[in-house]
């Protein structure tokens, strides 16, 4: 078993065995998601993305048959305008997968073909957790981080969906991994820029990454340039180039009369574009010059230049919707998320409808949803890292602990970045835990570090009494003790992942008593669809509360709901109502009582006796 003192805490290549293990973890995760996805219902967002993906795939058909027409703005807008509030990378992959595996080959059902790329992206997380965790803290930590990630019920549920929250978590982790590996190779620095471009093409969360990684890159460069005046001078020129371009853009905003005028005059042949080209060319020239003076400093700075240049270029290229009006359409996209609307959310007995939101919401929600056997090591690992950092600041306490390395600090900062962003009282709070998924792999790595330290300490004690004891004799039981309860929790709640609550919440009944959101996104309706299929009269009118028209269609297209039943938009028009239990929508149940003249449900979905979906049938 590797001792903490012997670990290599700098960027290093993975061994052949580690690469094979990571590949095996990816295959295992992908297979698990694929073989279980048929039971998972369609969330409102997912069905919207299904529809968008189909539209995008039709553009690729047009591209093959009539390229000149496909590149016109009218054809692009017709195909890509729908759901343009999100980047197109994942929806494009969903659409192409559906076009190949469902439309062309006919080997998969509708939903599975859409979801396949999402499985591939989500499966990257365990593989990358193993590689980074093993390199920083040893393979015991890497294994725990990898195995534990998808055992969190809400994370496994989201990994099944053709949505963006799990893919952007995977891309965030990939960017950080490439950034860390850039210590050893310039090519990894370029890969970091490519990964960042793909990350911002996945979801807007990734736009925060340069602010997280830049301080580490500059700190690396500063430390690497110690003792070399030439390296320091060139480092100053590199930073000066970026600062000068930032100042020039700021002056343009001022002199042109504000952001609106700046946006209006941002054309292909304009100072705006010239400054970006100057940044790109200047970065390459400066880095080439610096390479002859100090390779370590160069490697530290390459990721910054690559993200600054390749990120925007890949974002533009991946999204045809931007091609004819990149500035205006990108500005609309950014403004949409900067002013995102707020959805009502039930939290500790309070129906939150708008800001300011509780500062502790994210931490409390995480504690109440992550299985306790996984949450405790996360807290332990993070507190240990912070404690070591604080103790290392004092002259008297510095010798008590090993100061955290820059690589450990990188993991720690990324473990809290998404959490801190969403914790801001003015940021919309909804969607359960999915908006801070990018933090969870790093918390898993810190959990793995805590478990590895515990296993090593226990092994040392046992070895003193029985020298022949194997490290596996300690690691396997500890892993089982921590992972099996999470697996049981996952199996118990599957496929109703948005209802998952931990032991700390008292499970689902305890969370309901606490006044927490019982479920959301409408996917739990699959629990009552078999009853509706059996009991609905021919041509029955069905009101599936919170299920949008796309999802209703998808349930029918995938054989989960009879094709003869019809959707309606009100209990008063319906023969059967499936009410999704939401505190903010309680009036829909009251309206159903009024429309049907009864308060007695005919069936429902109850998890641990907690109502999730309640079905009413109009009396004959």
TrEMBL record:
The lineage of its organism: Bacteria, Pseudomonadati, Myxococcota, Myxococcia, Myxococcales. This is Glycosyltransferase RgtA/B/C/D-like domain-containing protein. It comes from Corallococcus caeni. The chain crosses the membrane at residues 20-40, 118-137, 157-180, 238-259, 266-288, 300-319, 368-391, 442-462, 474-494. It is a multi-pass membrane protein. It is found in: Cell membrane. Keywords: Cell membrane, Glycosyltransferase, Membrane, Transferase, Transmembrane, Transmembrane helix. Residues 89-225 form the Glycosyltransferase RgtA/B/C/D-like domain. It holds the Pfam family PMT_2.
């Amino acid at each position: 078993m590797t001792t903490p003192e012997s670990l290599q805490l700098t960027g290093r290549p993975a061994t052949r065995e580690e690469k094979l293990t990571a590949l095996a973890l990816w295959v295992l995760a992908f297979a698990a998601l694929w073989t279980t996805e048929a039971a998972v219902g369609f969330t409102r967002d997912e069905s919207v993305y299904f529809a968008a993906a189909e539209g995008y795939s039709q553009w690729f058909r047009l591209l093959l048959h009539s390229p000149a027409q496909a590149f016109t703005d009218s054809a692009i807008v017709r195909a890509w305008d729908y759901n343009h509030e999100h980047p197109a990378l994942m929806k494009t992959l969903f659409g192409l997968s559906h076009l190949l595996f469902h439309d062309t080959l006919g080997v998969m059902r509708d939903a599975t073909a859409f979801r396949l790329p999402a499985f591939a992206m989500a499966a990257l997380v365990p593989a990358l957790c193993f590689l980074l965790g093993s390199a920083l803290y040893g393979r015991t930590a890497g294994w725990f981080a990898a195995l534990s990630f998808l055992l969190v019920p809400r994370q496994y549920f989201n990994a099944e969906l053709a949505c963006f929250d799990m893919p952007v978590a995977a891309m965030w982790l990939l960017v950080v991994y490439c950034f860390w590996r850039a210590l050893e190779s310039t090519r990894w620095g370029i890969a970091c820029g490519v990964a960042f471009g793909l990350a911002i093409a996945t979801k807007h969360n990734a736009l925060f990454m340069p602010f997280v990684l830049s301080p580490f890159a500059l700190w690396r460069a500063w430390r690497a340039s110690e003792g070399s005046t030439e390296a320091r001078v060139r480092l100053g020129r590199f930073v000066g180039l970026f600062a000068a371009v930032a100042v020039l853009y700021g002056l343009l905003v001022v002199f042109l009369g504000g952001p609106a005028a700046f946006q209006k005059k941002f054309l292909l042949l304009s100072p705006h574009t010239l400054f970006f080209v100057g940044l790109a060319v200047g970065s390459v020239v400066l880095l080439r010059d610096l390479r002859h003076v100090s390779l370590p400093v160069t490697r530290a700075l390459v990721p910054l230049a690559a993200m600054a240049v390749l990120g925007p270029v890949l974002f533009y290229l991946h999204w045809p919707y931007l091609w004819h009006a990149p500035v205006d359409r990108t500005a609309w996209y950014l403004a949409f998320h900067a002013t995102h609307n707020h959805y009502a959310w039930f939290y500790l007995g309070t129906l939150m409808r708008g800001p300011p939101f509780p500062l502790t919401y994210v931490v409390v929600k995480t504690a109440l949803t992550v299985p306790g056997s996984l949450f405790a090591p996360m807290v332990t690992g993070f507190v240990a890292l912070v404690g070591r950092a604080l103790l290392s600041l004092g002259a008297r306490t510095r010798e008590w602990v090993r100061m955290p390395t820059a690589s450990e600090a990188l993991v720690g900062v990324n473990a809290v970045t998404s959490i801190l962003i969403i914790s801001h009282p003015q940021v919309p709070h909804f969607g359960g835990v999915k908006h801070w998924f990018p933090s969870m792999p790093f918390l898993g790595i810190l959990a793995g570090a805590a478990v590895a330290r515990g296993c090593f300490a226990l092994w040392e004690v046992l070895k003193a009494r029985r020298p022949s004891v194997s490290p596996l004799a300690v690691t396997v039981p500890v892993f089982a003790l921590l992972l099996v309860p999470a697996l049981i929790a996952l199996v118990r709640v599957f496929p109703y992942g948005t209802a998952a609550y931990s032991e700390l919440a008292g499970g689902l009944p305890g969370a309901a008593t606490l006044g927490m959101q019982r479920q959301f996104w409408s996917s739990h309706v699959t629990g009552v669809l078999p009853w509706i299929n059996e009991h609905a009269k021919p041509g029955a009118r069905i009101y599936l509360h919170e299920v949008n028209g796309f999802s209703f269609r998808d349930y029918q297209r995938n054989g989960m709901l009879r094709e003869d039943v019809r959707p309606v938009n009100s209990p008063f028009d319906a023969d059967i109502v499936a009410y999704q239990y939401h505190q903010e929508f309680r009036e829909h149940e009251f309206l159903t009582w009024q429309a049907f003249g009864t308060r007695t449900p005919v069936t429902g979905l109850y998890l641990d006796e907690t109502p999730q979906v309640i079905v009413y049938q109009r009396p004959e």
